[in-house]
Structure formats: C-alpha cells, structure tokens
C-alpha cells in the first residue's frame, strides 16, 4: 500500500480540519494510507554524523511521500535529503514563500509584473522609490493578505517600515480590490477564480472578498503555462493582478495554497486530482487533468 504523510503546524491544522479530513478520506478511497502529523512533533538535525529525523522522540517508518503544508524550507530539505518525495518541494518553498524571490526569478523569464522594489525594513531609504504614492508595501514572507499596506505618503511609509521586520517589497499601485487565482497541479491548469472586494484594496476571501469562476483566454493560458514551465510546481495557486488594460500581471505564488474559493465555486475534487498526480509522480508516469 502507498503510504503518505500530510503535515501541518498546529495553529494551521486547527483552521484546516476539513481540508485535512478531505485529503485523508479521499486517500482511503484510493487505497492510500495518508496519516496526519503535526510539525511540532518532529525533531530534525544531525547526530552521530548523519542527518536524522524523529517523531515524538522515535524514528518514524518513512512513507512514500509527504504533503507538507507549512513554509519551513529547512524541514522540507531534511525530508528530501532522507529520500522522501515532498509535495511541494523545498525549491518551490524557497521561491514561492518569498515574494521578492518570486518576482526576481520570474522577471528573468520575462513574466509581466507590476513595478516592484526589493528591500529590508531596517535599511529602507524613502528617497529611493522610483514611483509615486500611493503604493503597496508587503512583508516578503507574508501570507493571506496579512502585513500588506496601502501607503499614501512618506510619513505613513516610515510608520509602516517600523512595524515591519525584515525583507519587504514595495509595489506601484495597480487595479485595486480585484485579483485572479489560478490553481495548478503539475503542468496542468485546474481552475481560475476571480476574487473581488468592494471594501478593501485586497481581494482575499479570508478578508471578506467575493469569488467566482473565471474563464481564461488563450493568451492568459499561455502566460500561466509559461510560468509553470519555469517552476516544478506540484500543487499551488498562481495569483495575478490586473493592469489598467485588464492584462494579467504576476502577483505571487501560493505554495501552501488555500482552496476555499475553489470549494465555494466548483465541484472540483482537488483532493482526488492532487492524489492522482502524486501517484503518477511516484510511478514516473505523465499526469493529465481531464
């Protein structure tokens, strides 16, 4: 029997019980033994001259794969170094969970995006912004629309920087209250969801935004596939904003992607799709979403 782990930190697991149970139930229907484990119960490191891992103080029996739903790159690397196939990989974790790095790597591949500055809160120079206020400031490692600020002037910018701690990005203002999430599994586009808000410049569902299915044009599909070709994504959300002409601009990539908008608007069984993809990956066979 194929065995797997699905791993969360406790605080995230408490808010994602239905998602966890959905994966486990679907896995059972497919003859996969999927076990939920808490990240806090793992111990990783080097002892007796070797990389090692413990779970609740004991050496675990390794499964065939792990679905890791936290953003600890070091943890994913440890699992990979010990021979476990991790979904998503540590490489995607490193890229997707740093907004500056995402833009840096994909800009080199000519992916369209809004003007963006990479900096750190402790070394920011307000005289070095090449565009006008208002602008958007984001924690480079933030998630779910948190630590994202619309800044209207230099005084507010200085206040925001005092609240931030570390790497940030500063972006020219684009179309507000509207974005697009494209769910992808492997090299396949699964669905696109348009998210909108009438009361906030952020369109996140978790912040009260609405959502609906969006039908990608052929031009938009080409852009998504161009991004997918650059990265070895297993399951993620590629988020876009819109320019003044309605064209897509890359915003970020969600490694530990939330699927609430997918469940609200479609009957797509994302658990089954992802697990089929995992089985194809483990057997080195091609995966095609019908």
Any overview of this molecule?
This protein has 290 residues and is of the alpha+beta class. It has three domains: 2-87, Rossmann fold, CATH 3.40.50; 115-172, 2-Layer Sandwich (Dna Ligase, domain 1), CATH 3.30.1490; 176-282, D-amino Acid Aminotransferase, Chain A, domain 1, CATH 3.30.470. 30% of the residues lie in helices and 31% in strands. It contains nine helices and 15 strands. A five-stranded antiparallel β-sheet has the order 13-12-11-14-15. Strand 3 and strand 4 (50-55) form a beta hairpin. The longest helix has 13 residues, at 17-29. The radius of gyration is 20 Å and the shape is globular. It starts with a strand and ends in an 8-residue tail after the last helix. The mean pLDDT is 92.
Topology:
Elements: E1 2-8, H1 10-15, H2 17-29, E2 32-38, E3 42-47, E4 50-55, E5 65-68, H3 73-81, E6 85-87, H4 90-96, H5 99-107, E7 116-120, E8 135-139, E9 148-151, H6 154-163, E10 167-172, E11 178-185, E12 188-196, E13 210-213, H7 218-230, E14 235-242, E15 248-254, H8 260-265, H9 270-282
Parallel strand pairs: 1-2, 1-5, 5-6
Antiparallel strand pairs: 3-4, 7-10, 8-9, 8-10, 11-12, 11-14, 12-13, 14-15
Helix pairs in contact: 3-4
